[in-house]
Specification:
It contains seven helices and two strands, in the order αααββαααα. It is mostly helical and 255 residues long. The chain has two domains: 57 residues, no CATH class; 160 residues, no CATH class. It has a two-stranded antiparallel sheet with strand order 1-2.
């Protein structure tokens, strides 16, 4: 028994060995720093899903630089992750015109709502009526056009998105804001301006600018505003036609 006790490891040594075995089994590399994982991915072999010795990284040097800069695409300077502009990136990893329009109109309408609320609050409106804000039907129609075209455009291109995602993953092309104007499918991708996107973008900018000026003028001339200012119906028709043209341009599958 004494000889057997001498051959058993001490408790601290045994705990260290158990810890080492657990780390190798969960984190790896159990077969040493040059181990080759035969499973389809590292997570199939190690629960933690990362096979890299301490102090080293499994990523190439170029990717290390990108990670150090917060996930930035250094070829173009456009950050895909960790940046507020990510709200404009769609499922194809491109700057999206529909995302841009929805975000822009949302910011304008919410900012106006906040301004109207504050004006009514400091204008002596009773608390129960602070949010009794009138919204003209033209403004509701405008919001419906913007949101509806975004939904329809996404639904139209969704069946083709999977294949395009695979091509994007292979090419890893940089993102840039000019993609809101450019062709997004086929051989002309990012090489040719899409006229349907081009007209829709600039009409949106003009409409937003005009409505902001109208709203500021209306708020400045009213002591206690009752709601959103109206929207020109002719311009609303023009915006509707522009969105219909933009959405219609997505139907043909570009080869």
């Amino acid at each position: 028994m004494a000889e057997l006790a001498d051959t058993l490891p001490a408790s601290l040594q045994l705990r260290a060995q158990l810890e080492d075995l657990a780390l190798k089994d969960l984190l790896g590399p159990a077969g040493g720093p040059n181990e080759i994982v035969e499973e389809p991915n590292v997570r199939g072999r190690y629960i933690v899903g990362l096979l890299a010795p301490k102090g080293q990284t499994a990523l190439p040097d170029d990717d290390d630089d990108d990670l150090a800069e917060g996930g930035r695409d250094t070829e173009d300077g456009a950050e895909r992750d960790g940046n507020w502009l990510g709200i404009l990136i769609d499922e194809r990893q491109r700057f999206s015109l529909t995302h841009f329009q929805v975000v822009l109109w949302t910011l304008v309408l919410l900012s106006l709502l906040a301004a109207i609320f504050l004006a009514r609050l400091f204008g002596g409106t009773r608390p129960a009526a602070l949010l009794d804000v009138e919204i003209p039907p033209e403004v509701l129609t405008l919001a419906g056009i913007s949101g509806g075209s975004a939904v329809v455009a996404t639904a139209i291109k969704s069946p083709r998105t999977t294949d395009i995602r695979a091509k994007i993953a292979e090419g890893k092309k940089p993102t840039h804001f000019s993609q809101v104007f450019m062709v997004e499918e086929g051989e002309s991708i990012d090489k040719v301006i899409d006229v349907t996107r081009f007209q829709n973008f600039f009409l949106t900018i003009i409409a937003v600018g005009a409505y902001v000026v109208l709203a500021v003028s209306d708020l400045a001339g009213t002591a206690v505003p009752t709601g959103y200012p109206g929207f020109n119906q002719d311009l609303l028709w023009l915006i509707g036609i522009s969105h219909a043209t933009y959405v219609g341009g997505k139907f043909p599958q570009k080869q």
